[in-house]
Amino acid sequence: MADDENTVFIGSKETMNYVQAVMMQFGSGSDEVVIKARGRSISKAVDVAEITRQRFMEDTEITDIITDTEKLDDDEGGTTNVSSMEITLSK
Q1: Model confidence at 9: pLDDT above 90
Q2: How far apart are CA 84 and CA 70, in angstroms?
Q3: Which of 10, 16, 66, 76 satisfies CB 3.0 to 4.6 Å to 37 for a cystine?
Q4: What CA–CA distance (Å, rounded) separates 26 from 48?
Q5: 59 vs 47: CA distance, rounded Å
Q6: In the chain, what are the domains?
Q7: How far, in Å, CA of 62 to CA of 74, rounded?
């Protein structure tokens, strides 16, 4: 897996901000960028990967997709399951 410096964490910003972050990672010499998201941000992560691949960097391809469920402690003392996804783009 890639280092954290080659990772883009998806959150609440606009989709194109993350697309630009992925392109900057590739522009700085990275051959591989990992896009990570949890919960509701997963669909935005897929959008970021596809926009990057189809509009801006057609020579990149998705080389790996990892899905997982993380258990997080909630406010009531129990646990909550949160889905997570990692999409690896490579040149």
Answers
A1: yes
A2: 7
A3: 10
A4: 14
A5: 17
A6: 4-90 (3.30.110.20)
A7: 34
Residue type, 77: G
pTM of the model: 0.88
Strand, coil or helix: 77: coil
pLDDT for res 1: 43
Q: Are 41 and 86 in contact (CB under 8 A)?
A: no
Query: Mean pLDDT score of the chain, rounded to an integer?
Result: 93
The token pair at 19 is 């697309």
Q: In what order do the strands lie in the sheet with 7-9?
A: 7-9, 32-38, 79-90, 61-73
Q: What is the pLDDT of residues 40-77, one digit of tens each?
A: 999 999 999 999 999 999 999 999 999 999 998 988 88
Query: What is the three-class DSSP state of 4?
Result: helix
